[in-house]
Amino acid sequence: MWVVGVTGVMGSGKSSVAQLLADCGGHWLDADQMARQAIEPGTVGWQAVVAQFGSELLLPDGHINRAALGACLGGDEQQWQRLEQIVHPQVRLLQAIALRYLDENDASAVAVLDVPLLFETGADQLCDTTVVVVCGAVQQQRLQQRGGMSVSVRQAASMRQWSEQQKRQHAGWLIDNSGTLQHTREQVIGLWQRLLSQDAAAASRVWPTAWQPFLPC
To answer: What confidence tens digit (pLDDT) does each residue in 65-93 have?
Structure first.
């Protein structure tokens, strides 16, 4: 089973590229979605977040108000690190369980891990190859058009990420998403074809060995 890590700076369009890889036949594992699952009411992550940051962040239905949590953390780097220390291990667990399920049902599957902090958290070591989505100067324009996130939270999130140049230097593959969707799609299709042409033996080096520590006993 291939494990392909996809990342990029905020506004790069990494999730769009992950979706395009899924359209080609990959299995998209969205770390942001799993981060939400990790703090669902009653979970270990939910309990830890409430204990650390307070029950006043809870909505009437018991869910954590993510917008209020982000506003509470603001630009406090230490507070963001405390949150990540809670959430990241739970996300890694969910990823490992999903990969095991994929492997049990299709040993030739291509798992696409969409992870914002892929290199920053060392998750690239759990991938057979990495894809960095770049967009150059259009990033700021896209961020300005994106709603639902305050300036302070966006700045705090950006500070925790490597720059696009740093990510480029560690990329296995690059996808330029600064142009049209069609141009991006053509690159992704080409990448998919190259991935499928890789030696199958080389594609099995991280799973399951590297993921074993994260699987439940």
So the answer is: 998 998 888 888 899 999 999 999 999 99
